[in-house]
Structure prediction request, 290 residues.
Amino acid sequence: MRRADGPRIVLHSSNEMYGADRMVLEVLRALEEPRNVTVLLPDDVISGPTQFTDELEALGVHARIVPLPVLRRAYLTPRGAIALIERSFNLFRLFGRIRPSTVWIANSSLLICAPIARLSGAPLVILHLQEMWSGVERVVLSFLALFCGRIIAISSAVADRVLYRTRRVSVVHNAVPAPTSVTRVDTSANIFLVASRWNDWKGHRTLLAAWKLAGEPGSLLIAGGPPPIGRGVNVPALIDEMKLSRSVSVVGEVADLGDLYMRASWVVVPSDAPEPFGLVAIEAMARMRP
Prediction:
């Protein structure tokens, strides 16, 4: 098989339906021939069928669960480093067998795969940059990104965090589908919505503390759930700890946020760190939700 005829490989570090997962689906929907694409997903998160894998199947895209070398905190130990080396070697052998024409890296946590792909002979490696880099992480990831032929950042703020930036870095904003219907907002109902994964930087503790200080000014709906791996926040425990169960409800993970946006009077994005793009805020504004 010639390299030009080889499959296009997408490397993605999660198997859920949050912002990065949805953007993978949007890009695949835009391809003329998505059936020549294989999505590789890691085996250290949710490995069974999910809404994400169901959506891939509907597009005719094959998904495989493999031991990907994901840069997670769990591997920052001697034993974890050995496991990461083993996973890297296994991916190198896999690339050698399937001979991909393109490797698209959908998350910064998979950037260690860029040199692996280049060493295996992949002609084109693309990074879809969806995270804000800072500190030592910024230096390490910027170096690994040198092995990518193209870097597509989801915002100018994200692109500006890349060291050694050249013309190979371009900005393409996330695709945000327009809502099928919009109803006028009733701000007098005082229904507030926060929708995100419960990562430690998403500001749930900050929001709940402010909610209590404000005297519980309405009804607060919290959608989402904890990350399958890594540092998260136990939102139900925080609600109990702050004695806010009278006004705060946990909705959990939902397949479509559309109905929740329509119920809400206000949408809150309480992140403690800069948002790379702010997908929830844009979707809320598209539905006339302040």
The radius of gyration is 20 Å. Residues 111 and 145 are 7 Å apart (CA to CA). The first strand starts at residue 8 and ends at 11.
